[in-house]
Each structure stands twice: as structure tokens, then as C-alpha cells.
Specification:
Number of strands: 9
Helix content: 10-25%
Oligomer: single chain
Order of helices and strands: EEHEEEEEEE
Strand order of the largest sheet: 3-6-7-8
Number of domains: 1
Length: 80
């Protein structure tokens, strides 16, 4: 499964997506998917809600507590 990693300024976060989802992201489709969780320093483990290509080529995720993180750098690793 491909792993998409973003740097959002002071840390990094990753999400694993299945191949069909990865293909849709690469085509530039707007894709929204929940991640594997995010350890927030104040609120503990939260669900990370990812949005790809809302603005073409942009990646961000948000948490249930309202925090938003925008990818400044994005890279992909193929972790089979």
C-alpha cells in the first residue's frame, strides 16, 4: 500500500491508502479519507480526516477538535 507523507511545518504525518484510492489522488480527483489516527498533545488520539486535491495538488488533514494541518511538502513511499 502506498504511504503518503506530509510535512506541515514542524512535524510530519502519514497515511496509507489502497491502490484504487492512490490512483484517484494521482488523477487529481478530490479524495477524502480517514487516516489511521493522530496523537494530539492535548486531546489524545483523534481521527485524522484527509482531503486530497481540494485545491489541485494540495493535501491537508483535519481533526475532530478542529485543528487543521496543511502539507507544505508531500512525498510517497510504496510500502508493500
Amino acid at each position: 500500500m502506498p504511504t503518503i507523507t506530509i510535512s506541515y511545518g514542524y512535524d510530519i504525518h502519514r497515511i496509507r491508502v489502497d491502490e484504487p484510492t492512490f490512483v484517484r489522488i494521482n488523477r487529481g480527483n478530490v479524495v477524502e479519507v480517514d487516516g489511521q489516527g493522530f496523537g494530539h498533545e492535548e486531546d489524545g488520539l483523534l481521527i485524522d480526516h484527509w482531503v486530497f486535491n481540494n485545491d489541485f495538488g494540495k493535501v491537508m488533514f483535519w481533526l475532530d477538535n478542529g485543528a487543521e494541518y496543511h502539507g507544505q511538502e508531500v512525498w510517497v513511499e510504496d510500502s508493500k
